[in-house]
Structure formats: C-alpha cells, structure tokens
Amino acid sequence: MNESHPGVPVPDRLSQVLTFWLGSEVFGMDIRTVREIIQCGPMTAVPLMPGFVRGVINLRGAVVPVVDLNARFGRPSAQLGKKSCIVIFDARRGGERIELGLLVDAVSEVIRLADGDVEPAPEFGSAIRREFIRGIGKVGQRFVILLEPDRALDVEEMARLCDRAAEAEMA
C-alpha cells in the first residue's frame, strides 16, 4: 500500500535489463551496470590466468580483462562467432570501480521487467551456482536468467582463483 495515499496500490518498480545469449539460454543484467557493448576483437592472453579469463583488450588506452562467461559458469569456453561480443560493465573491487568485459555469444535486447515478473533463483535445475543468479525474469512465455554480477563476477574471488592458478603452475 502507498503510505501517502492509503488504499492506492504501489506499482511495481520497472528495471531495464540487457539480455544476451550464452548457448541456447538467455541471461540478463541490470542495464545501469553496463558501460558499452563492443565487437569481439583481438585479445591478448595473460599467462597464469584461470581458463575463464580470455585475455585483456585495449579499450581507449585502458587495459580491460575479458571474462568468458560460459567458462566462468563451468561450461566449455565460448566459440567466437559473427555475433559474439564483449559487454563492458562496471565491477567493484575493494570499493573501487573497475571495468570488466564479458564475452557473450550475442546481445539480444534491453527489456523492462517489473518486480512482479521476477521469481527467486531456483533451488535446483541450473548448472550455475545459485548465488550467481538474482532471479528468473518472466518475459511472455520465456524466461531470462538474471545475473547477480556482484557475486557471479566478484573480482576478489576471481583474483583469488588467478592466484591459485599461478601457485599451481609453480608447484
């Protein structure tokens, strides 16, 4: 109920979500975290990185790491195709904002989702860690898996994985 006007229902808050494809599944993330979408270009591989870090790109003079989202979710690495692209978004590391690139199979569209169209992450049925998923958005007859980027793309966790990969290489 609306506090300022008793009896008047409060409308659902609408979120804008960028949707993209990974294989045959549609994923989405809040558009407010997305900086830009660029075509896949040459990436420089970085030694001793886990398999989900495809490399780095030069984005207007800044070095931006690119994460293969398929590999991050424990799937086979993405195969680059005509529609493959990199979604540049803002991540946080120790309170500091950094740019990170996500390699996806294709970007679809920006959709609007009301709070009422989002269900909690399922307890089962997904090969992706549950804490990586904010919820499941219902768009007509299809579903969009909404990512929780602060967890799925936790820069601190990914840095620890990189450190472990380097230690394993040296052992």
SSE layout and pairing:
Blueprint: E1 14-22, E2 25-30, E3 34-39, E4 53-59, E5 62-68, H1 69-72, E6 85-93, E7 96-104, E8 106-114, E9 118-119, E10 133-139, E11 142-147, H2 149-152, H3 155-170
Parallel strand pairs: 2-11, 5-7
Antiparallel strand pairs: 1-2, 1-8, 3-6, 4-5, 6-7, 9-10, 10-11
Reported by name, the CATH topology is OB fold (Dihydrolipoamide Acetyltransferase, E2P)
CATH architecture: Beta Barrel
Order of helices and strands: EEEEEHEEEEEEHH
CATH class division:
Mainly Beta
Contiguous low-pLDDT stretches (5 residues minimum) are: 1-5
Query: What proportion of the residues form beta strands (DSSP E)?
Result: over 45%
Number of domains: 1
Query: Mean of residue pLDDT?
Result: 81
CA-to-CA gap between the ends? 61 Å
Structural class determined from secondary elements: mainly beta
Radius of gyration: 18 Å
Oligomer: single chain
CATH homologous superfamily (4th level) name: CheA-289, Domain 4
Percent of residues in helices comes to: 10-25%
DSSP helical segment count: 3
Q: Strand tally, please?
A: 11
In which order are the strands of the major sheet placed?
8-1-2-11-10-9
Main β-sheet description: 6 strands, mixed
